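Many introductory courses stop at the sequence. We go one step further.
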Amino acid sequence: MSSTALLSGLTAFTIAAGSATARPGPYIPPAQVVARVDRFAITAADLLESYEFGPAFIKRGSDPLREHLEYMINERLLALHAERDRLDSTHFVMARVHAIEEDLAVDQLYYDDILARVRVSDAEIDTASEKARVRLGLTWLYVRTWDGAERLSRALSRGAPFDSLMKTMGEGLPPAERTTETTLLGLETNTPELAQSVARLKTGQISAPVRGPDGYYIVRLDRVWRNPLETESEQARLRGDAGRTLRDARARILGDEYVKTMMKAANPVIRAGGFNILRAYLAEQGLSRDMRLKWKIPATFMTEAGPRPISRAGEFLHATLVQFAGRTMTVKEYLDWFDIRQFQLRRTSLDAFNSSVKQTVWKMVQDRLLSERAYERGLQRRDAVHREAARWDAKLLYLATREQIRRSVTVSDSLVRQEFKSHRGRYRDTAGRPAGFEAVRSDIRRELAAQKENELLFRLLRRLRDEFPVTVDETAVRSLAAGLQPDRQAIDVMLYKPGGTFPRVAFPSIDERWQNLP
């Protein structure tokens, strides 16, 4: 896991937000309030940024921006309901609000200590622009081990067709997912080792095995081309993109050194006893019993009262997991940190599982050190942090209410059977034949639960609109929507922020579940 990713908070959000506010139509200042829902104010920037990152279904409507605003209003009404029900004091909300505030403060640390030091000259941007104009078409073979890569290389040297090997050595990926188009600049920036190998190839030639972050690659250079005709605006865009690519690449290098220096000074050490307890907890949650037995991961640990199951002995949670910078962190502190992040641990082998658990422990220590440094400087008090944290606060309160509604829904077995008898003809198997009750029981239960949830949601929203004042500046919203047209072909693109101390989506837009309402 890249140490830079732990520090960097930059995402595509900052670029996309700018494109959203630059649409044609009468100018509306970004800070102008276009709607109020009791204490919540929705500004022009809030609306446009939420729409930019919102789900595709809303963009297909006849008046997409106004419809999007209506769902934003609904979510803030449900957030007000959550506050009134004291859901803002629940662990679910409080832990995530704090984690997001920490992450936003660390973003500010990144801006101050990393980006502020990055310098790129005009000459360097010119060179990078030329490389960005060169486009490459690549196809690759992938294997996890060096032995496998050598076997592939020998087969190719004996005349085995590259395309045939793609079908047999694809590690489960179809050929279409092992072909890509990129630029020379992008290849040099993201995978320099691969770029060096490709630079020596002519069109149609195949590289020697190249080591990547997750295995070994053999690449074929399918084609090289560039657009001979560029407009002035395309040239400006290309130059801007090249500059950002250079700055981001240099920021990654600076960020690596920054985090390495910080970790070296803290000198973290994982304690074997605490690690074994932690591993047993995580294994019990995420591994099958057969796999735990195969890997000999214990389910019980010895205490003064004798052997006790790992899941029932609270004293295990207080074991020291890691020591650094003159302090300790316990297994419980890790589990609290891990609970709201839910990283995927590797399960391909015991070594891979152990390694991925250790990596998350190092990440927890890095997160703690970075957030403490940011808080020591008071970066959490910056206006940018307050504004973004407020958006997430509203979103998390809304989610807490939706979860409260979902948990309140119950569907009895008798109701499920009654629904099946009343609409038996609707239920078919994959061959189109009438399906038996047991085959569709769970599907019917989900359908009925969703119907009940929607009914409760509608009733609650009607009541909340009577209780809380809602105002909309329709003139301003129409002005903002002047340059937006419905997009019948819109598709969902998830912009995710993998770095920082709290991986999450880039921006808290509206919930895609609104499309399921009748």
